[in-house]
Amino acid sequence: xxxxLLIFTSKQRDDIIELGGTGWWKVDPVKARKASHxxxxxxxxxxxxxxxxxxxxxxxxxxxxxxxxxxxxxRWLIQFDEFATTDAGVEWPGYRNPVTYVDSDEILGQLxxxxxxxxxPVSLEIAKDCRRRDDASVSRMEARTGASSTNDEAPIxxxxxxxxxxxxxxxxxxxxxxxLGAVRISIEAS
Length: 190
What we know:
Layout: E1 3-9, H1 13-19, E2 21-25, H2 29-34, E3 37-42, E4 59-70, E5 76-85, E6 99-103, H3 104-107, E7 117-118, H4 124-148, H5 161-176
Parallel strand pairs: 1-3
Antiparallel strand pairs: 1-6, 2-5, 3-4, 4-5, 5-7
């Protein structure tokens, strides 16, 4: 019986297109390559990237597998050949592991699909660069969270509006690795 790889991810559509697929997972590459499709299910409760709570646990994309390639740490990127958006027809079964296999005969009939699109090829080196950038951002956020619990800075609730904006500009500059002058925050009232 054909199987589908079901993945619980906090990544959004644009992240997946930039990466050319979904990664970096601990999977059996032989088994992953045999899967007929990948279905991505939204994880709104990731500790480093919050999502839409109304979509939590619901499918949002289906794809065919182009290849499964490995990074140096043993994790795998599942590169897509084609993809389509889906309705919320498939729900995450609640497993702790974010990767599981399901019977395609049971699950494909539950989905309403958008138009299939060809995934633009992304080289493994570019995909690894995206991963390194994301990992560096997470490391900076973790360091900042640890540092903020020990510094003497005033809590946000006691800051003026201007101090809050300056505080967040500095955090964004640090997370993005850019000069503070390159970060502008704009608020438009309609």
